[in-house]
Write the structure tokens for this entry.
Amino acid sequence: MERLKCNLTFRELRKDENLYDDVDLTAGSMVDAQYRRVAGYEDNPDVCALPKMPSVRDILALGMVNPPGYDREQVEKMSTAEKLAAIEDIDMAMIPLGIHVDVARTIWKFLDRRYKGADVMISANEDEKAYGKGSFGRAIVLYQKLEAPSPIGFLLHGKTGCGKTMAVNLACRMYPNVIYHEFEDCSYVQIPIVMVTALRKDIRDVFESIAAAFDRFLDTGDYHRRRAVGAKSISATEGLVKKWIELYHVGLIIVDEVQFLDFSPKKKNIEDIVSITQATGAQFGLIGNDDGYRAILEYDRLNRRVAKSIINADEVTKNNVRLFENAIKTLWRYQFGNVESPFTTEIEELLMYHSSRNIALLKYIV
């Protein structure tokens, strides 16, 4: 095992520039690595390939996605059926809220912590090479430094419809799904974020979802998922996921809807997630409603790891009144009546009150 030696070519970024500004990251494809100089880590490609911490302006600009195809001048020409269909499209609008800034910066900090706490190593393990199916040359793995602090996580919780998952999806759009590093005698891939949803109590389902995410990102058919499903035990599946995390340089694993996991001492589903991050150095994030929040607080080992990074989506949104007022004004513009209704302070106050500052309720009311 030896550390990868490479000479990186760095981009000189202006204050308003960032890595991958010239790439359509919403396309979801693998992109060639770009590098910025990070003092003390000039020989670590994973650290240098991570974009700068996004500014508030960047986050808010990326968070504004208008409903598709709205044109006020065409409203009078639309039939009732067309108007009803167009109203449904309002739900596709994304409007920046205070939670988006908190979540985006938290995710960046966790990715930065992960990659600075690990070394990019050349592995001589033939078994690990097999996981890449020969696609990426020699096995270049990400190993946690012995002196690196234990992995930690963040917990994002709040009522259904407050924008938790949307905020995380927005933050994920700031990074390539897969970063491809190519050097003279080797190449490898770096997957900054893997996000899955816990739909059942069985932790095996989460592991299989992680494997399926690798297939989707790397375009490997059902190779990873098939191996995970075919493993003889949960421990064997967990072992596969650990090796893939190291081989694909995964930075952060996010599990949504954690309230559906089995927190009972007998099952210890959440313990398996902690064990994976502890063994690999990957950081983790958890998203859930208030039931999930209470369950995590009662699980001491997990509580200690997320205690410094708990984000209450409801409180952040309620406290940042200006951004929610902007959301109301933005949604009010999408009208489908023949006569446009003016926006007034009274309307704003009523919508603020009846929506309880919940973005899903606001869209429904509007």
